[in-house]
Amino acid sequence: MENKHYSRKQRQLKYLVKQLNNLLKKADDNLKLEIRKMAAKIKYLVSQLSGIINANRMKRILGTIALVIGVSFTNTANAQWFAYPIQDPFNLQDGNDNEVNSPEFADIDNDGDLDYLSGEYIYGGFGYGLGFHYQENIGNATNPNFANPTINPFGLTAYSPALPEIGLRQHHKFIDLDNDGDFDILSNVRAVDISSYPYAWNSHFIYYENIGTPSNPQFSTPTLNQFGLSTTPNSIVYTTLGDIDGDGDTDMLGFSLNYSNYATDFLFIENIGSASTPNYTAPQLNVFGIP
User: Fold this and answer.
1) Rounded Cα gap, residues 93 and 118, in angstroms
2) Are residues 145 and 251 in the same domain?
3) pTM of the model
4) Nearest Cα to 177, choosing from 273, 281, 285?
5) What sign results for the dihedral spanned by CA atoms 60, 62, 63, 66?
6) Phi first, then psi: what are they for 121, rounded to 5°?
7) 25 lies in the same domain as 132
8) Domain-located, residue 126
9) Same domain, 132 and 53
10) What confidence category does residue 76 fall into, taking pLDDT thresholds of 50, 70 and 90?
């Protein structure tokens, strides 16, 4: 038998569904934030009432609103409620008016919590370069608190392609590429060739070896297209790293967008070397049944 607490929640749900239906009928862009907040409250109540009232009853209450807010009746217990987004939590910062991209979290200093490193394009004229924005977690694993940012820590140096190329974005990943127990960095760098119009977009692989230790990282000078990797002309490339074929070493899977015809292809770059001495093949397109 339902108690008064859940009966009240059910009445709240019916009321909010009615209110949301009324807002949606107005089709007013100025109401988008209010609609999102109300949808979040409805999803929260659905999660609270799941298992208390049956699926058929929930369907009757929600009606078409179920489709709007993405509630499935195949397993209503999976309805999730998320808090409203918080901008710049835990003292995370935007890089002193420079552009930050490709945020990554890893325990860079081996103290048991996640630190923050992102790519940064530093506006300062053509060819000025791409840098790194670092914030150490001076809190802990459950209560993070990030120190003020430093640019290019641990000996990291900005990669600046030679003119007529300008580096615009870098998307980096932490990975122990040489299997020595510490984090190295492999970046996809997108650069634009301004020597002729329309501009050509090229993607390079940049490798930063950690020549320090897991607790005291120190990175080498960046090197271009190591381990058999090569520049992908007229394309932007994004890759992720993992042992895709189960042979104990790190492969790459990603996609490329060709700027000449806007075609998108999935890429598989196989490591035919080893876990400590990688050697990558040329990209294979649309493998593993990926169209």
Assistant:
1) 11
2) yes
3) 0.69
4) 273
5) negative
6) -95, 120
7) no
8) yes
9) no
10) very low
Domain region containing 23: 1-69
- Please report, for residues 80, 131, 205, 220, 224, the alpha-carbon distance to residue 161 in angstroms, rounded to integers and kept in the order given: 46, 12, 12, 17, 10
**Whether residue 53 is found in the same domain as residue 106:** no
Burial of 43 (0-12, 13-18, 19+ CB in 10 A): middle
Structure-token pair, residue 111: 């103290």
Task: With H, G, I as helix, E, B as strand and everything else as coil, classify residue 227.
Answer: coil
Q: What does the pLDDT read at residue 279?
A: 94
Q: Which has the higher per-residue pLDDT, 77 or 189? A: 189
Both 2 and 122 in a single domain? no
Residue 148's H or E segment, with its range, is none
Structural domains counted in the chain: 2
Question: Residue 243 carries which DSSP code?
Answer: -
Give the helix ranges, DSSP H, for 63-119.
Answer: 65-69
DSSP 228: T
Whether residue 117 contacts residue 108, with contact meaning beta carbons closer than 8 Å, is answered with yes
Rounded average pLDDT over 97-104: 70
pLDDT score at 127: 43
Q: Reply yes or no on whether the pLDDT at 132 is more than 90.
A: no
Task: Give the integer Cα–Cα distance in Å for 228 and 280.
Answer: 5
The answer to whether residue 202 is domain-embedded is yes
The answer to whether residue 112 is domain-embedded is yes
Would you say residue 90 lies in a domain? no
Q: Residue 192 in contact with residue 124, Cβ under 8 Å? A: no
Residues 62 and 121 in one domain: no
**N- to C-terminal Cα distance for the chain?**
52
Residue 181 CB burial class (10 angstroms; 0-12, 13-18, ≥19): exposed
Within 13 Å, how many C-alpha atoms sit on residue 245's CB side? 16
* Model confidence at 187: pLDDT above 50: yes
Confidence of residue 74 (pLDDT cuts 50, 70, 90): low
